[in-house]
Structures are given as C-alpha cells and as structure tokens.
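Protocol step 4 of 5: obtain the predicted structure for the target chain.
Materials: sequence only (see below). No template structures provided, no constraints applied. The aim of this step is simply to have a reference model before the mutagenesis design in step 5. Sequence pasted as it appears in the construct record:
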Amino acid sequence: MNLTPQQQLTMLRTMQTIRRFEERASDEFQAGHIYGVVHCYIGQEAVAVGVCAALNREDQIISTHRGHGHCIAKGADLKRMMAELYGRATGYCKGKGGSMHIADFGIGMLGANGIVAGGIPIITGAGLAAQLDGKGRVAVSFFGDGAASAGPWSRKTRRRFARSKRRSNASAPCRFRFLTVHSWRAMCSPTASESSQGCERCYSRAGKTSDRRP
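Step 4 output (structure tokens):
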C-alpha cells in the first residue's frame, strides 16, 4: 500500500487525535468527572489507524475494552464519544454504554467489548455475512494476546471457518481479518506458561477431535 504525503499526514493527524482524546479522557477520569472505567489506547494508535486506513466505510470492525482508538480511526464522532463517557443522553449509546461499549453501525463499528475475546464470535458472523453477500466487504477483529488463549479464538473461529468452507461458495474470498496486538499484558496468561510448543500441542490435539454437533 503506497501512501501519498497527504495520506500520511491524515494518518498522523488521526493518531494525534486519538492520543489527545485519550489524554483528556484519562485526566477527566482521574479527576472524578467520568464514572465507571476508562481503558486508554495510548501507545497503540498506529495499529488502529494503519488498519482502518485500508478499510472502506462499509467494512466492519469490532474492538476490545480499549476501543476509543478503533472508534476514532473508523471515523466516529468525537463529541458523541466523549458524551458517552460522561454518561450523557447525547452519547452513542445514550450514556448507558460508557467507555467499553461504544458502537456505530453506520461507520462499520460493531462495538467494543469488556469481555476478553468476546468480540471474536461476533466478527466471525459478520465475516461470514460479508462472504455470503458478495459485496466485497471485510470484517476485522482487534484483540489482545490474552484473547489468543481464550475459547472463542481456539474453538468458535476454527469451526466457523470449517463451516464456511462447506456451506459457502468455495471460490468466494475469505472476509475475516483477525488482528492480535501483543502487549505482554494478558492478566491471566503468564508468559512463562505460554509457549509456541504448548499451542501446537493444543491445536494438534484439537485437530484429532471430530465435532459431531450440527
């Protein structure tokens, strides 16, 4: 993907916008003006901007508990986002979703998710829909290294892929894109116990198990 100088400037501005939004949100949360929780996307801005710059408006994404950056990179309205954090009725979810549940279907943002790996099954369904409707859309899931060892990734995703191959047009291109952000901060996956050999044994064993359910 060759970027023009103007495209590079636009991406830089978007990254700076994400950083300023997160800094303001963090300050307001620390000051007690925002209730609930605020999980910032500081330090990962380039990931969201780089991915979303390659997407069209009708393409769909799903986020994690650190979803502000993804929303902004996909084109969300900053005022409605901040209103949602403040719990105002003018927010994206009328103030009822808060930081971790901002969604805007109009721009292809299917929402953020407070559950580790919770967005993977959702975007898998969106990807299958994109594959079947044949309109050229793609579906992208952002998730962290902790989600890579969770059930939705190792079970549902693999089964959905298998079923899509059986039920859909075999010549249709795959419309799934799964993006792992390896932050080394998975709260329940100690690095010492996670190894490539362990994952290989897991998938090797899973490959020998047949799924007889419809």
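Step 4 remarks: The two ends are 41 Å apart (CA to CA). The first helix runs from residue 5 to 30.
Proceed to step 5.
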